[in-house]
From TrEMBL:
Residues 9-43 form the HTH cro/C1-type domain. GO terms for molecular function: DNA binding. Pfam families: HTH_3 (PF01381). This is XRE family transcriptional regulator. It comes from the Bacteria. InterPro entries: Cro/C1-type_HTH, Lambda_DNA-bd_dom_sf. PROSITE patterns: HTH_CROC1 (PS50943).
Length: 106
């Protein structure tokens, strides 16, 4: 799947990236990005892939044409929480020491 100018603009907006940010991440000249997004120029396929990979590295997922139009979305981020079996209760010693006894109102 190639990258369209609309997808490029939308992906940058999702990441809050400027054209300079994309240029730095993809090693593609800012002028090339600006001309592509404005519809003035169609870069080489390798250049489009470099931009797409940089945006994917930033957390964007590209959605292929599936009858509803091609698009972009943010990837689901991994939760920073500890992965445990949901049926288990995990307590850490530092919290147990600070816990008030039942009925203490703490």
């Amino acid at each position: 799947m190639s990258l369209s100018s609309a997808q490029c603009r939308a992906a940058r907006a999702l990441l809050a990236w400027s054209q300079d940010d994309l240029s730095s991440a993809s090693k593609v000249a800012k002028a090339t990005i600006a001309n592509f997004e404005a519809g003035k120029r169609s870069p080489y396929e390798r250049t489009l892939q470099d931009m797409k990979h940089a945006l994917e590295g930033g957390g964007v997922v590209f959605i292929p044409e599936n009858g509803g139009g091609a698009g972009v979305r943010l990837a689901k981020r991994a939760s920073p929480s500890i992965d445990t079996n949901e049926t288990e209760t995990v307590q850490y010693e530092e919290y147990l020491e600070n816990d008030a006894p039942p009925g203490a109102g703490g």
